[in-house]
Amino acid sequence: MQEALLKIQGLTTVFQVGDAFLKAVDGAGFSIGKGEIVGLVGESGCGKSITALSILGLVPSPGKIVGGEIVFDGQNLRQISPRAFRKIRGREISMIFQEPTASLNPVFTIENQIVEAIRAHGKISARQAREETLGLLRLVRLPDAEKKLNQYPHQLSGGMNQRVMIAIALACKPQLLIADEPTTALDVTIQAEILRLLLSLKAELGLSILLITHDLSIISGIADRVIVMYTGKVVEDADVASLFSEPAHPYTRGLLGAIPAVQEGKKGTGKKLKAIPGSVPEWHNLPPGCPFHPRCAHALPGCSTVFPQEKQLSPTRRVFCYLYLEEAGTRHETD
Amino acid sequence: MKQTDNQTEALLRVRGLKKYFQLSAGFTIKKKGIVRAVDGISFDVMPGETLGLVGESGCGKTSTGRCILRLIEPTAGSVVFRGVDIMTLKGKALKDYRRHMQIVFQDPYSSLNPRMKVRSIIGEPFLVHKVCRGKELLREVYSLLEMVGLDRSSIGRYPHEFSGGQRQRIGIARALALRPRFLVADEPVSALDVSVQAQIINLLTTLQAKLGLTLLFISHDLNIVRLISDRIAVMYMGKIVELAPSDAIYSEPKHPYTRLLLESVPRVGEKIKPGSPDEQAVLRAFSDRPEGCAFAARCPAVMDACRAEEPDLQSLREGWQVACHLFNRKKRT
Question: For B270, which residue in chain A has the nearest alpha carbon?
């Protein structure tokens, strides 16, 4: 196994709403190796983005990290000073977002915005910064880089803006890039190009990437490992090959079954998409025990009491489900 | 235009449909111009079939759907529905015709009035068209709720009390209230989670079979379109570039743009290869479009003819049309 660059354990982030505490991330734990692309999947509201923001210490206001450890490159990010954190954020770990056009400042040129990122983290001359900016734009394969320097975000397309965002994120040569739904707002042909770019950057710079997405087919195409989240909890963590060939958790199986595959799906074959019944529970009304049990076809009586323990299925694979915990399984079979 | 209109009569016949939008001089756009959102498209929709309309954002698929329903006024062209050219309809005649054609919108969060209860949302079409009221109306609303798989108790609740998938069910119930013959589904699942998308697609196919609906299914997602469509029309910059039975288009796409689209779809079990992206890709200058084929700048198989003249949509074989010089034998030699 590779050396872990980021290791998260028992991360719990809550939002206080009135008197209630909503657990947006509930005891999540996983690690990201050096030069590894890890996919974080789940449906909307499952805590993917809050997990990412927790890593960067950017949880928005009523939210708070209340437990767990985030160890990056040997340092526990929850214990360092805000000043020290600022050096890591942007320089060691950076992030790109879903809406590239909305994430850029509309009143500054592309050059301004990249130079700002470069100079915020190091004292270099304006001329040098310009050179570096050009280098970055070439790195992200922005066509006509020189011409684009003096343009504004509205003059570029969504795909080009996302390249600029990636350039800004890479300005300080980070070790870890967090990409939160980086292609969801883009067209499918542009999406393919951005994904290819991310793969090349991983190879060229040895970058680790945490790729957050709801699209399992993207994960299958680009990631080394997958973490599946449901209502703030990690339910499965596996290498890509085994997750897609034999999904262990019933939720993962459901997600995979719901993908309309280009190869198979065809009208009139009588074959229906296997939808997961019901919908994601609401935060203030989470079911006890395993949050997936009301939608699960294999639910055992124990599922509604306590969230299952971790079960290591293989060196690269963990799942949180009673189906794989023997004692529980046999106990409930007699019921 | 050669069409396969021999055996059955088309339910909907679109001919030369155009929708141009004026760009006004403003703060950022200095010069006036015209956006040719839909630029002369023609197709038929047969009774009971689903025609999928795919393309990337800005290709004119939504404008097409809305022009057909006359939710926006087309610039030119005709839409013939059951023998009547709806472009000539006015007032009451237009309103009557709207009973037979309905639309389901993309965003179930903004397409339902937040101040109306489900009872009023689904019941409104009955009142607008003076079909029924009172107890009879209530009965209709209950049966619609049941049809789309919602609980009877939903009737007194507001849209915000529902999840996205449930809201889309309300939208579908509203659209189907007056038993239309033809339904435009404009990206009905793209705002939904994967697991819920499947539920809505299954619901639409079930309802289509049960009610004999004819569907125009608009989507950018090729995987989803395939599941529900009998035939597929691919649009690029306001034009249909390929129109074929859905099996055919997925097994042997002809137009280079269709091929690019299909290659770009990420698939489970298929690794994406790192590589330098196409440098020339997409500078979509809509208002000053070059001569010739709109796809020429991105096309890997581009020829001289492509920059000189725009290819027409021509029949390749029965039921299969392509607009590309590669398949135009006369031009090629």
Answer: A221
Would the CB atoms of A265 and B223 count as touching at under 8 Å? yes
The verdict on a CB contact (< 8 Å) between A222 and B272 is yes
The residue with tokens 């329903």 is B69
Among the partner-chain residues B198, B229, B246, the one whose CB lies closest to the CB of A274 is B198
Q: Which residues lie closer than 8 Å to A36 by C-beta, 6 or more apart?
A: A2, A5, A208, A209, A224, A225
- Contact list in B for residue A240 (CB cut-off 8 A) is none
| Burial grade of A293 (CB within 10 A; 0-12, 13-18, 19 or more) | buried
**Contact at CB, A188 and B220, closer than 8 angstroms:** yes
Q: Give the whole-angstrom CA distance, residue A121 versus residue A115.
A: 10
Taking only the tens of pLDDT, chain B with its 333 residues reads 444 445 578 999 999 999 998 877 666 656 667 888 999 999 999 999 999 999 888 889 999 999 999 999 999 999 999 989 999 988 889 988 889 999 999 888 889 999 999 999 999 999 999 998 899 999 999 999 999 999 899 999 999 988 888 999 999 999 999 999 999 999 998 888 877 888 899 899 999 999 999 999 999 888 889 889 999 999 998 999 999 999 899 999 999 999 988 888 888 777 877 764 444 444 433 334 567 888 887 788 888 888 888 898 989 888 899 999 998 765 444
**Residue of B193, B197, B250, B280 to mutate for A, most A C-beta atoms under 10 A:** B193
CA–CA distance, A139 with A320 (Å, rounded to integer): 40
Query: Model confidence over A87-139: pLDDT tens digits?
Result: 898 889 999 988 888 889 999 999 999 999 888 877 888 888 888 899 899 88
Q: Are A161 and A153 in contact (CB under 8 A)?
A: yes
- Tally of CB atoms within 10 A around A112: 15
B 12-71: CB under 8 A from A? 28, 50, 56-57
Residue-level pLDDT at A332 = 44
Q: Which of A196, A255, A260 sits opposite B274 (nearest CB)?
A: A196
Q: What is the ipTM of this complex?
A: 0.72
Rounded Cα gap, residues A204 and A197, in angstroms = 10
**DSSP state letters, B96-146:** HHHTTEEEE-S-TTTSS-TTS-HHHHHHHHHHHTT---HHHHHHHHHHHHH
Q: How many CB atoms lie within 10 A of CB A255?
A: 24
What φ, ψ does residue B211 adopt, rounded to 5°? Answer: -100, 0
Give how far A47 is from chain B: nearest CA, Å: 14
pLDDT in tens, A204-258: 889 999 999 988 889 999 999 999 999 999 999 999 999 999 999 999 998 888 8
Interface of B with A in 218-257 (CB under 8 A): 220-224, 226-230, 246-247, 250
- The DSSP output letter for A80 is S
Q: Which residue from A157, A199, A262 is facing B222, i.e. has the nearest CB?
A: A262
Cα distances (angstroms) measured from residue A189 to each of A32, A214, B163, B300? 29, 18, 30, 14
* Interchain contact A226–B (C-beta under 8 A): no
Q: Do B226 and A263 lie within an 8 Å CB cutoff? A: no
Q: Which residues from chain A sit within 8 angstroms of residue B201, using beta carbons?
A: 260, 273
Q: Is A217 on the interface with B (CB under 8 A)?
A: yes
- Take residue A322 and report the two structure tokens written for it: 């009673």
